[in-house]
Amino acid sequence: MTRFMLALLLLTSPVLAQSNEVKPGTAQPQMQTSAWIRPAIQGEERDDDTFRIEAEQPLLVYFFGVKSDSCSSCGLWMQEISRIHDIWSSRGLQVVGISKEGTADLERFLGEYAGITTFPVSSDSGENTFRNWLDNSPRKDRLPTVFLVDAKGIIQWIGAPGEELDGLLEDFVKGRYHHELTPYGEKLKKSAKEARKYNDWQDAESYYMQMLRDGEGVLNQAAVEIFRMYAIDRGEVDRAYGWIE
User: Fold this and answer.
1) Which of 14, 54, 185, 202 is the residue whose CA sits 20 to 30 A from 109?
2) Domain ranges of the chain
Protein backbone atom coordinates (compact mmCIF):
# COMPACT_ATOMS: atom_id res chain seq x y z
CA MET A 1 0.00 0.00 0.00
CA THR A 2 2.83 2.37 0.92
CA ARG A 3 4.61 1.65 -2.37
CA PHE A 4 1.36 2.27 -4.29
CA MET A 5 0.84 5.64 -2.59
CA LEU A 6 4.46 6.62 -3.27
CA ALA A 7 4.13 5.71 -6.94
CA LEU A 8 0.89 7.67 -7.17
CA LEU A 9 2.56 10.67 -5.55
CA LEU A 10 5.43 10.54 -8.03
CA LEU A 11 3.08 10.31 -11.01
CA THR A 12 0.87 13.18 -9.90
CA SER A 13 3.58 15.48 -8.59
CA PRO A 14 3.44 18.82 -10.46
CA VAL A 15 7.21 18.90 -10.55
CA LEU A 16 7.77 15.39 -11.89
CA ALA A 17 4.72 15.04 -14.11
CA GLN A 18 5.95 16.87 -17.18
CA SER A 19 3.41 18.09 -19.71
CA ASN A 20 4.08 18.31 -23.43
CA GLU A 21 1.07 20.56 -23.97
CA VAL A 22 1.66 23.18 -26.63
CA LYS A 23 -0.35 26.37 -26.22
CA PRO A 24 0.13 30.15 -26.14
CA GLY A 25 2.62 30.91 -23.38
CA THR A 26 4.71 27.75 -23.80
CA ALA A 27 8.14 27.56 -25.43
CA GLN A 28 8.25 26.46 -29.05
CA PRO A 29 8.91 22.70 -29.41
CA GLN A 30 11.83 21.24 -31.30
CA MET A 31 11.65 21.47 -35.08
CA GLN A 32 12.94 18.43 -36.99
CA THR A 33 12.52 18.66 -40.75
CA SER A 34 14.37 17.95 -43.96
CA ALA A 35 16.25 20.66 -45.86
CA TRP A 36 14.32 23.83 -46.62
CA ILE A 37 12.99 24.36 -50.11
CA ARG A 38 13.02 27.98 -51.13
CA PRO A 39 10.81 28.50 -54.22
CA ALA A 40 12.29 30.49 -57.09
CA ILE A 41 10.85 34.00 -57.18
CA GLN A 42 10.39 36.04 -60.35
CA GLY A 43 12.56 33.80 -62.50
CA GLU A 44 15.50 33.67 -60.07
CA GLU A 45 17.33 30.39 -59.60
CA ARG A 46 16.28 28.42 -56.56
CA ASP A 47 18.82 28.41 -53.74
CA ASP A 48 17.70 26.14 -50.93
CA ASP A 49 20.91 26.46 -48.92
CA THR A 50 20.60 30.17 -48.19
CA PHE A 51 17.72 29.96 -45.71
CA ARG A 52 18.11 29.48 -41.96
CA ILE A 53 15.63 30.22 -39.18
CA GLU A 54 17.21 33.00 -37.14
CA ALA A 55 16.98 33.11 -33.36
CA GLU A 56 15.54 36.17 -31.61
CA GLN A 57 13.25 37.03 -34.52
CA PRO A 58 9.46 36.55 -34.65
CA LEU A 59 8.39 33.44 -36.54
CA LEU A 60 5.22 32.30 -38.33
CA VAL A 61 5.00 28.54 -38.89
CA TYR A 62 2.38 27.34 -41.39
CA PHE A 63 1.48 23.64 -41.08
CA PHE A 64 -0.19 22.29 -44.21
CA GLY A 65 -0.90 19.20 -46.27
CA VAL A 66 -0.29 18.83 -50.00
CA LYS A 67 -2.83 16.10 -50.74
CA SER A 68 -6.56 16.69 -50.96
CA ASP A 69 -7.31 13.94 -48.45
CA SER A 70 -5.08 15.57 -45.82
CA CYS A 71 -6.12 19.18 -46.45
CA SER A 72 -8.41 20.32 -49.25
CA SER A 73 -7.97 24.05 -48.54
CA CYS A 74 -4.24 24.24 -47.80
CA GLY A 75 -3.32 25.08 -51.38
CA LEU A 76 -5.78 27.97 -51.41
CA TRP A 77 -4.07 29.48 -48.37
CA MET A 78 -0.58 29.38 -49.93
CA GLN A 79 -1.21 32.71 -51.65
CA GLU A 80 -2.37 34.32 -48.39
CA ILE A 81 0.64 33.09 -46.41
CA SER A 82 2.87 34.26 -49.28
CA ARG A 83 1.22 37.69 -49.06
CA ILE A 84 2.00 37.81 -45.33
CA HIS A 85 5.59 36.81 -46.09
CA ASP A 86 5.94 39.46 -48.80
CA ILE A 87 4.59 42.23 -46.54
CA TRP A 88 6.19 41.37 -43.21
CA SER A 89 9.49 39.59 -43.97
CA SER A 90 11.22 42.91 -44.60
CA ARG A 91 10.09 43.99 -41.13
CA GLY A 92 11.61 41.03 -39.37
CA LEU A 93 8.95 38.30 -39.55
CA GLN A 94 10.20 34.88 -40.62
CA VAL A 95 7.59 32.79 -42.44
CA VAL A 96 8.03 29.05 -43.03
CA GLY A 97 5.78 26.19 -44.09
CA ILE A 98 5.95 22.56 -42.99
CA SER A 99 4.22 19.66 -44.74
CA LYS A 100 3.99 16.10 -43.43
CA GLU A 101 4.21 14.62 -46.92
CA GLY A 102 7.50 13.52 -48.47
CA THR A 103 9.81 15.74 -50.50
CA ALA A 104 8.61 14.35 -53.87
CA ASP A 105 4.97 15.16 -53.08
CA LEU A 106 5.98 18.56 -51.76
CA GLU A 107 7.99 19.35 -54.91
CA ARG A 108 5.00 18.35 -57.06
CA PHE A 109 2.73 20.56 -54.97
CA LEU A 110 5.08 23.54 -55.27
CA GLY A 111 5.10 23.02 -59.03
CA GLU A 112 1.34 23.46 -59.04
CA TYR A 113 1.72 26.72 -57.11
CA ALA A 114 4.81 27.99 -58.92
CA GLY A 115 4.99 31.77 -58.82
CA ILE A 116 2.55 31.87 -55.89
CA THR A 117 4.55 30.39 -53.02
CA THR A 118 7.26 32.82 -51.89
CA PHE A 119 8.21 31.47 -48.45
CA PRO A 120 10.53 28.56 -47.53
CA VAL A 121 8.89 25.17 -46.93
CA SER A 122 10.11 21.82 -45.67
CA SER A 123 9.03 18.19 -45.56
CA ASP A 124 8.33 16.51 -42.22
CA SER A 125 7.83 13.03 -43.65
CA GLY A 126 8.76 11.46 -40.30
CA GLU A 127 6.07 13.65 -38.72
CA ASN A 128 8.35 14.46 -35.76
CA THR A 129 7.63 18.18 -35.94
CA PHE A 130 3.91 17.57 -36.47
CA ARG A 131 3.90 15.44 -33.31
CA ASN A 132 5.93 17.96 -31.32
CA TRP A 133 3.87 20.98 -32.37
CA LEU A 134 0.44 20.15 -33.76
CA ASP A 135 -0.46 16.90 -31.97
CA ASN A 136 0.06 18.49 -28.55
CA SER A 137 -1.83 21.68 -29.41
CA PRO A 138 -5.54 22.64 -29.35
CA ARG A 139 -5.59 22.17 -33.15
CA LYS A 140 -4.53 18.53 -33.33
CA ASP A 141 -5.40 16.98 -36.73
CA ARG A 142 -6.60 20.35 -38.07
CA LEU A 143 -4.98 21.78 -41.18
CA PRO A 144 -3.98 24.37 -42.07
CA THR A 145 -2.71 25.70 -38.74
CA VAL A 146 -0.52 28.69 -37.97
CA PHE A 147 1.76 29.19 -34.96
CA LEU A 148 3.14 32.62 -34.05
CA VAL A 149 6.37 32.44 -32.03
CA ASP A 150 7.84 35.62 -30.58
CA ALA A 151 11.50 36.67 -30.58
CA LYS A 152 12.01 34.93 -27.22
CA GLY A 153 10.79 31.59 -28.58
CA ILE A 154 7.42 31.73 -26.82
CA ILE A 155 4.25 30.75 -28.69
CA GLN A 156 1.85 33.69 -28.66
CA TRP A 157 -0.95 32.48 -30.95
CA ILE A 158 -2.25 29.26 -32.53
CA GLY A 159 -5.08 29.18 -35.06
CA ALA A 160 -6.24 29.00 -38.64
CA PRO A 161 -5.14 31.56 -41.24
CA GLY A 162 -7.70 34.29 -41.88
CA GLU A 163 -8.94 37.67 -40.67
CA GLU A 164 -8.04 37.14 -37.00
CA LEU A 165 -4.43 36.37 -37.87
CA ASP A 166 -4.25 39.29 -40.27
CA GLY A 167 -5.59 41.67 -37.62
CA LEU A 168 -2.93 40.92 -35.02
CA LEU A 169 0.20 40.60 -37.19
CA GLU A 170 1.33 44.22 -36.86
CA ASP A 171 1.24 44.11 -33.07
CA PHE A 172 2.91 40.70 -33.06
CA VAL A 173 5.77 41.75 -35.34
CA LYS A 174 6.33 44.88 -33.25
CA GLY A 175 6.42 42.81 -30.06
CA ARG A 176 3.24 44.36 -28.68
CA TYR A 177 0.99 41.30 -28.86
CA HIS A 178 0.77 39.05 -25.82
CA HIS A 179 -1.43 36.02 -25.30
CA GLU A 180 -2.48 37.23 -21.86
CA LEU A 181 -2.47 40.38 -19.81
CA THR A 182 0.83 41.56 -18.40
CA PRO A 183 0.97 42.65 -14.72
CA TYR A 184 0.63 46.23 -15.97
CA GLY A 185 -2.43 45.27 -18.00
CA GLU A 186 -3.96 43.56 -14.96
CA LYS A 187 -3.45 46.76 -12.98
CA LEU A 188 -5.22 48.82 -15.65
CA LYS A 189 -8.09 46.35 -15.75
CA LYS A 190 -8.47 46.43 -11.95
CA SER A 191 -8.48 50.25 -11.95
CA ALA A 192 -11.15 50.32 -14.67
CA LYS A 193 -13.32 47.88 -12.73
CA GLU A 194 -13.03 50.01 -9.59
CA ALA A 195 -14.01 53.15 -11.53
CA ARG A 196 -17.07 51.41 -12.96
CA LYS A 197 -18.16 50.39 -9.47
CA TYR A 198 -18.68 54.08 -8.73
CA ASN A 199 -20.18 54.84 -12.18
CA ASP A 200 -17.09 56.79 -13.16
CA TRP A 201 -17.43 55.87 -16.83
CA GLN A 202 -14.89 58.42 -18.08
CA ASP A 203 -12.06 57.03 -15.95
CA ALA A 204 -13.07 53.45 -16.70
CA GLU A 205 -13.01 54.13 -20.42
CA SER A 206 -9.61 55.84 -20.19
CA TYR A 207 -8.11 52.78 -18.50
CA TYR A 208 -9.55 50.43 -21.11
CA MET A 209 -8.38 52.68 -23.94
CA GLN A 210 -4.90 52.71 -22.45
CA MET A 211 -4.97 48.92 -22.50
CA LEU A 212 -5.81 49.03 -26.20
CA ARG A 213 -3.17 51.64 -27.04
CA ASP A 214 -0.41 49.82 -25.15
CA GLY A 215 -1.37 46.40 -26.46
CA GLU A 216 -2.00 45.11 -22.95
CA GLY A 217 -3.98 41.97 -23.59
CA VAL A 218 -5.48 39.78 -26.27
CA LEU A 219 -7.37 42.72 -27.69
CA ASN A 220 -7.02 42.39 -31.43
CA GLN A 221 -9.00 44.12 -34.13
CA ALA A 222 -11.93 41.71 -33.84
CA ALA A 223 -12.19 42.35 -30.10
CA VAL A 224 -12.28 46.09 -30.66
CA GLU A 225 -15.04 45.76 -33.24
CA ILE A 226 -17.17 43.57 -30.96
CA PHE A 227 -16.72 46.11 -28.18
CA ARG A 228 -17.85 48.90 -30.53
CA MET A 229 -20.84 46.86 -31.62
CA TYR A 230 -22.14 46.52 -28.08
CA ALA A 231 -21.19 49.97 -26.80
CA ILE A 232 -21.93 52.12 -29.86
CA ASP A 233 -24.26 50.29 -32.22
CA ARG A 234 -26.45 48.74 -29.53
CA GLY A 235 -25.89 51.21 -26.73
CA GLU A 236 -25.28 48.34 -24.28
CA VAL A 237 -22.30 49.79 -22.43
CA ASP A 238 -22.37 47.34 -19.51
CA ARG A 239 -22.52 44.39 -21.89
CA ALA A 240 -19.60 45.80 -23.90
CA TYR A 241 -17.40 46.12 -20.81
CA GLY A 242 -18.59 42.74 -19.57
CA TRP A 243 -17.53 41.12 -22.84
CA ILE A 244 -14.09 42.72 -22.86
CA GLU A 245 -13.38 41.33 -19.40
Assistant:
1) 54
2) 2-173, 183-244
180 has pLDDT over 80: no
Pairwise CA distance, residues 227 & 31, whole Å: 38
- Dump pLDDT digits (tens) for 56-114: 999 999 999 998 888 989 999 999 999 999 999 999 999 999 998 888 899 899 888 88
Cα 236 to Cα 57: distance, rounded to the nearest angstrom: 41
C-alpha closest to that of 101 among 77, 136, 70: 70
CATH of 2-173, one of 1.20.82.10, 3.40.30.10, 3.40.50.12780, 3.30.300.30: 3.40.30.10
- Give 147's strand partners: 61, 158
Pairing of strands 94-99, 59-64: parallel
Question: What is the chain's mean pLDDT, rounded?
Answer: 80
Nearest-CA neighbor of 181 among 220, 216, 154? 216
